[in-house]
Design a protein that fits this description.
Number of helices: 12
Oligomer: single chain
Structural class: alpha/beta
Radius of gyration: 24 Å
Low-confidence stretches: 2-19
Shape: globular
Mean pLDDT: 90
Strand content: 25-35%
Helix content: 25-40%
Largest sheet: 8 strands, mixed
Number of strands: 17
Strand order of the largest sheet: 10-11-13-12-14-15-16-17
Order of helices and strands: EEEEEEEEEEEEHEHEHEHHHHHHHEHEH
Amino acid sequence: MKRLIFLFIIGFTFLNVWGQDVAGDWNGILKVQNIQLRLVFHIRKTESGYSATMDSPDQQANGTPVTSVSYENAVLKLAVAHANIEYEGILGADGNITGTFRQMGHSFPLNLSQQIVEKEPLIRPQEPLKPYPYYEEEVAFEHGEDGVNTITLAGTLTLPQKDGVFPAVVLISGSGAHDRNEEIMGHKPFLVLSDYLTRNGIAVLRFDDRGTAASTGDFQTATGYDFSKDVEAGVRYLQTRKEINKKKIGLIGHSEGGCIASMVAARNKDVAFIVLLAGTGLRGDQILLLQQDLIAKVSGISETNRNQSMNINEGLFKRVLQATDTKQLKADLTDYLKQVVQTIPDVAYKEMYNDNFIATSVNGMTSPWMQYFIKYDPALALEKVKCPVLAINGEKDLQVPAKVNLDAIKAALTKGGNKRVTTKELQRLNHLFQECNTGLPTEYANIEQTFSPVALNEILTWMKENIF
């Protein structure tokens, strides 16, 4: 549940430089509430002027078309219409551009340089420093995707010692393309979790999502089911290692990774246990509606506007739930959003819903992953899970609300006859299991802590008491 949309913005100073060409690659760091996002504009000269694309490497969003580019009298103007992004800057005598990035009524400074721009160093005291007091190995394992295409998944295996036989876990990341450390907002939660568990006698396999970092495969067309097959390949790989106790291989899944863990455990009896970290117990559309409303409420959005958004999204999800054909679904969603626009009284909000924005929204809503997620009910898999289960959520989690999801997880497991179930709500922790104030995603990067020691201890204590 980490597929979030961020707002960007800026302010500028004037310096005039005449006659310089602006073609090239322009790099900048956008700072939004202490979150640092790299942006790169690739500007090219054309017969009629300029064209450009935009990269946001930290959000794995590259090659976004810039819909308009103008450069006159040292003033550069860029616009990405479907995202309501505008940039205006002045090319100075030092060869850099000073400008402002705007999106949806917000503005932030953004200066651009043709040199690579480095982020300011972040303080992350929990990240381990080498040399580690355990054995670490770069690994790769393959599996045939539905017997057709072979995918190679690259990862890291850590063992308490090079020799010996150890219990093991496979770490499963949440939604979005993640590397083996599940890096997000400058944090590496899986690196911290892996280090903690390995120092305490447990082998850990963590790997890059398909199509991400060093792993092959197509991430964009994959669904939760496809990711579950990747995890099963990881379990099979561990079974080939002489250092692994084959009867004590478990899964730890974060957010959507919790859904995937229960999918795998429901059909694979080789899974000895699962740990659900902010795992979901409700169907995808219900999760998204709760998430959107809670984040808006804590952000100070009025009840009227929240209800309006809720009604719009319920209409979108209803059509996805009923759809059997993607082409028809795209047409239905486009018509629906165009009708919605006509009912919006707020002019600024209404302008946001232009044709480009609607087309982008529809494409996102009809992607294979989104359709699968909206329709997927984790209770159906949880009812079939017979191994021990630990489910923990943060009390301030706004993305996967704790109580309603823990109750749903426990109810589904109990319905299936599983009596080896532990659920716990951890106070003051957010979706990433950081100690926090509000739980808003905008806090994640500001917090130095990557993974609460309380949560780490809960996981290890449960594993020692129930598995080992």
